[in-house]
Structures are given as C-alpha cells and as structure tokens.
Amino acid sequence: MSSLKAIIFDLDGTLVDSACDLRDAVNVLLAEEGLRQLDLDEVKSMIGDGAAKLVERAVSATGGDQSRLSALVARFLQIYEADATRHTQAYPGVPETLAGLRRLGLPLAVVTNKPYGATIDILEALGLRAYFDAIVGGDTLPERKPHPAPILAALGRLGIAPEAALMVGDNYHDVQAAQAAGVRAVAVTYGYSHKPHAELGAERLIDTMPELLPIVADAAS
Ligand SMILES: O=C(O)COP(=O)(O)O
Ligand SMILES: [Mg+2]
C-alpha cells in the first residue's frame, strides 16, 4: 500500500455540526409555505445529499408541493446562506487534528455536498479555512458524492494520486465516492449517517477526530 500523502474531509457531520442551522433554515421555508416544522432528528436524517435533496425530503415529509421544488430550493439557499454560521460548530478536536495533520506535512481538502458559498462562510467563521488547499462544494461540479468526480477534482488540485489519499466522512456517500475514486475511507461514528456506521464499508471507524492522527501518522511514514 502506498503511503498517505493527503487527507480529504467531508464537512457536515464530520468536521462541523451544522444540523441546527440547517433545521432552522428548513423551518423558515416550511413556515413560509404553511407546512409543519421538522425536529432536529428528522433534519439530520435528510442531510448529506446536498441542499436540493434536503429541501425535497423536507417538502415530501410535510406534504408540500413537489412541483415547485426548484423555487423552494432557491428560497432555501437564500435563507440558509444568509445565516449559515449561527449555531454551527466544529466537532471536538477538529482544529487540533487539522493542525496536527498539517504538521505531518499533509495537504488537506474538503469535499462536501453543501454549496460552496456556505462551505466557505462556515470554514471562515470557525477559523478552519486556512487548513485546506482545496475545497470542492456540492455546486462546484455537475456531479456530487457518491460520484467520484469531486474527490478526483480535489486530488487533481493537490497533485496527489488517489491511492495516496484518505477520505474521512460520516455517510455512505463519502465511502462510496472514495471507493469509486480509488481512495481509502475512514468513517466517524458521529454525524448524520443514514445507516449504521459499521455498514458504511469504511476500513476504520473513529469515535472522535483526534483518533485520526495516529492512523495517519502510521500510514504516512
Ligand atoms: O449539505 C449536505 O447535504 C451534506 O454535506 P456533506 O457532504 O458535507 O455531508
Ligand atoms: Mg457529511
């Protein structure tokens, strides 16, 4: 196995807990539409496949009008992007782990299905942006995870081959995208997975982000 030369991170549910801001924005949209409010667990089960899927799932769960979906997605983005950082926080140990990985000399990337603008706002608000050499959002390319293209685009920018990279995510689409790109995958046991973490197919599970450091240090040497 070739040694590790770069780490790619998922954002929502892996680096940051963004569910409260997503819930609040979804609920503003649903209130405008006269639909019922969603609770945090319902919203968590809808996060992961990008903003359009989140709105589609929210509208379907509350009996809204699916034929107006594209207007509702546009309105949701307006609401969410105006206030994406109010409650969103990095998970414990994330900044320290990113700093540790940089000290090992590894370039880092974010590959998320969240729109690029909100991704940058969140990384900047939390003081994390400077750790990353490449950031690919859900609207950067026509394809999103579980398609491998966003991961391959990030690696292209870093100049790193897939077999020398590791993806860290919280959801099935992170592991599937990594495997389709020929990249190794580790999954966190927190976040918003749509199925049990043990079934995601990752080579390792970690309960907290700092557990990544010894794994990477071993594999980078
Ligand atoms: O915004 C989403 O639905 C998910 O984003 P993620 O790819 O960072 O988990
Ligand atoms: Mg995620």
N-to-C series of helices and strands: EEHHHHEHEHEHEHEEH
By DSSP (H or I, 4+ residues per run), the number of helices equals 9
Estimate the helix proportion, in percent.
Answer: 40-55%
Helix/strand-derived category reads alpha/beta
Bound molecules: 2-phosphoglycolic acid, magnesium ion
CATH topology name of the largest domain: Rossmann fold
> Gyration radius, to the nearest Å?
17 Å
Tell me the name of the CATH homologous superfamily of the largest domain: HAD superfamily/HAD-like
Strand content: 5-15%
- Quick one: overall form? elongated
Please summarize the sheet with the most strands.
6 strands, parallel
CATH architecture of the largest domain: 3-Layer(aba) Sandwich
CATH class category of the largest domain: Alpha Beta
Strand order of the largest sheet: 5-4-1-6-7-8
Number of strands: 8
Cofactor: Mg(2+)
GO molecular function: metal ion binding; phosphoglycolate phosphatase activity
Organism: Microvirga guangxiensis
Function: Specifically catalyzes the dephosphorylation of 2-phosphoglycolate. Is involved in the dissimilation of the intracellular 2-phosphoglycolate formed during the DNA repair of 3'-phosphoglycolate ends, a major class of DNA lesions induced by oxidative stress.
